[in-house]
Amino acid sequence: MAQVRLAGIGKTYPDGTSAVKGLDLDIADGEFLVLVGPSGCGKTTALRMVAGLEEITAGTLTIGERVVNRTPARDRDVAMVFQSYALYPHLSVRDNIGFGLQLRKLPKSEIKTRVEAAAATLGLTEHLDRRPRNLSGGQRQRVAMGRAIVRQPQAFLMDEPLSNLDAKLRVQMRAEISRIQRDLGVTTIYVTHDQVEAMTLGDRVAVMKKGVLQQVAPPQELYLRPANIFVAGFIGSPAMNLLQGRLVAEGGALRLELGGQTLAVPAALAAERPRLREYAGRDIAVGIRPEDMEDAALGGGDDGAVLASTTDLVEALGSELLVHFRLAAPPVVTEDTRELARDAGADDLDTAAPDSDVIAKFSPRSTTAPGSPVRVRVDTERLYFFDPVTGEAIW
Ligand code: ATP
Predict the structure, then answer these.
(1) Which of 74, 95, 169, 252 falls between 20 and 30 A from 340, CA-CA?
(2) Could you list the residue range(s) of the whole structural domain that residue 186 is in?
(3) pLDDT tens digits, one per residue of 56-91
(4) What is the residue with the minimal CA distance to atom 5 of ligand 1?
């Protein structure tokens, strides 16, 4: 096992596409690091450079103590698991798992021991003599994992290994991968575009956008202290609502004007973010997570934390309601929010929109209905603030 270090790693493809730019990542021995970001952000390219499948055009890659920029893939002692399992259809599960060891001409008895140990870890013992076509998708994925495990590599590199599985199996295999990685303690780099997968699996999560690392942090820190609008909007589901507001200082207190309505900024929140005061009298980008809002009709007073609107749409998910309503504050339009909209499959943002669609997660006890007035209580302790031009979080 080993630490993996990327220092200023870059990739420019022969056609001039700059897919990865100055990537710095220190992955500790035994750590599970997830690389996440929208399609085309360069995460697969980064992983393939670590694997030795793609030439590194800038920076230094170290695995363990060795600089491996020019080391061929087979000599890097890393094992890659792909989204297409790349199993040999004519070989049994046993031979598929042991294939790499046979190539390396390990003694038969050792191959048998290692393959059977891996099969036991993966719950494949009963299936060792089957062919891949007689396995379920989840079992095939396990065989692919088994092939990586028996090699006892310094690191696992996984590229969207669960994306061919149905939703239920994906959740099951996600837990499995987490358990196996913990049991084996092998340094792992895992690529996905799925933020839920990233958050549940990673000891730390690295968020990329257009080839550039945006933030690397433990999942909860990404959620609570996103470095910028892109990370804030990418992590969380439904996504954080991002609105243009105006910060006003009144005596010692700050208040936030949002499309003609006002929220009081709690003193504790302002104290935690010393730079917030610099924005007094100016426009500011405000983030409100859906889960930080509730139907005010369910309780609480009118204490500078309530926004009034009309319910447009209610999506009942059983355990919660997703309530859509409009606020007169315009949406935030930056390069980050454009990229997020693209990733969500939306057309480009309407830069002239005078108001925003806001989504709140209400308790199922709420009886709000489309067309009826709604009062929305905002957990103002959990407001997020960003520079409206650079998109950087304000702390
Ligand atoms: P996805 O999730 O869609 O696979 P990704 O984040 O893994 O996306 P990459 O596959 O690493 O992204 O691609 C990053 C960028 O590099 C994209 O703009 C892509 O079009 C480009 N790219 C990838 N491979 C090549 C290549 N062989 N030649 C030129 N450009 C490439």
Answers:
(1) 169
(2) 4-233
(3) 999 999 999 999 999 999 899 999 988 777 899 999
(4) 40
